[in-house]
Amino acid sequence: MKIIFFMFAFGIFVLLSSIVSAECPIKVEAKTASALIAEIPSIDSDLASCPISIPSQMKKLVKNGDFLVSITDNDDIVATITEGNITSVKVQEGAPFDYKVTLSSCQLDNILSKENKVGAFAAYYLSGNANLGASGFVNKVKLWFAKRFAKSSLKDIQVAVDDCVNVTIKDNKPSNCYETYLPGYSEYSDPKVKEEWDKRLRETGNVCQTQTSEAPKGGECKYLYEQIKNNDKKWVCWYS
């Protein structure tokens, strides 16, 4: 039961954050929650032609269903599992789920930055700052039994993580800049531009765009792109 819980608790995170498959062209390198969310459309596209098998122990809990990663201060991610394979991942708010993990962007940033991602999640779960939930009677019963035997196993693998409760976060986002979606830009269809922009996002973790021609105010843009379309100028800013 400990092993089952262990694989359930973090199986989806491991697969979403560091998928590497010899059979499939899927490799996720995101180190922040925002960067991971930005990569979801390309991951989903790859999964459509090459689903990824989940760990065998995890299949004992959910062979078919939806696993929700609920990020309290960002978009949610839902992974669909079909016959023991992850067949789709979407950015979707309020999605139905069979099981879910709830945590903050700060916690997910920490987890993605660690070599031992499972140990990082264990630390947040044991501290009560990350939660596991289920929907439906059968799923809730399975999870209840799993949680009863989890703590001793998780204590052995947890690693040091940042305090995301009392931490003061430096906000480098310009005051006149708003979250944006890179695949929505026509420039992004150019493979060379996509490669460079994705690299910037992985490095900084955040990207925003102004709504007017006024340059970004305040904050700190590590990279800037001046977009001019139909004599309308806007700025795209990558920031940490």
Mean pLDDT over the full residue set: 79
User: In CATH terms, what is the fold-level topology of the largest domain?
Assistant: Nonspecific Lipid-transfer Protein, Chain A
CATH architecture of the largest domain: 2-Layer Sandwich
Strand order of the largest sheet: 1-4-3-2-5-6
Q: Work out the strand percent.
A: 15-25%
Number of helices: 7
**Stretches where pLDDT falls below 50 for ≥5 residues?**
1-12, 14-20
Helix content: 25-40%
Task: Report the CATH C-level class of the largest domain.
Answer: Alpha Beta
Query: What value does the Rg take, in angstroms?
Result: 19 Å
- Number of domains as seen in the coordinates: 2
Q: Indicate the overall shape.
A: globular
Order of helices and strands: HHEEEEEHHEHHEHEEE
* Biggest beta sheet attributes: 6 strands, mixed
How far apart are the first and last residues' alpha carbons, in Å?
40 Å
Structural class: alpha+beta
The total beta strand count reads 10
Helix and strand arrangement:
Layout: H1 2-18, H2 33-49, E1 52-53, E2 65-71, E3 77-82, E4 85-91, E5 99-103, H3 105-113, H4 117-126, E6 131-134, H5 137-148, H6 151-155, E7 177-179, H7 191-204, E8 206-210, E9 223-229, E10 232-239
Parallel strand pairs: 2-5
Antiparallel strand pairs: 1-4, 2-3, 3-4, 5-6, 7-8, 8-10, 9-10
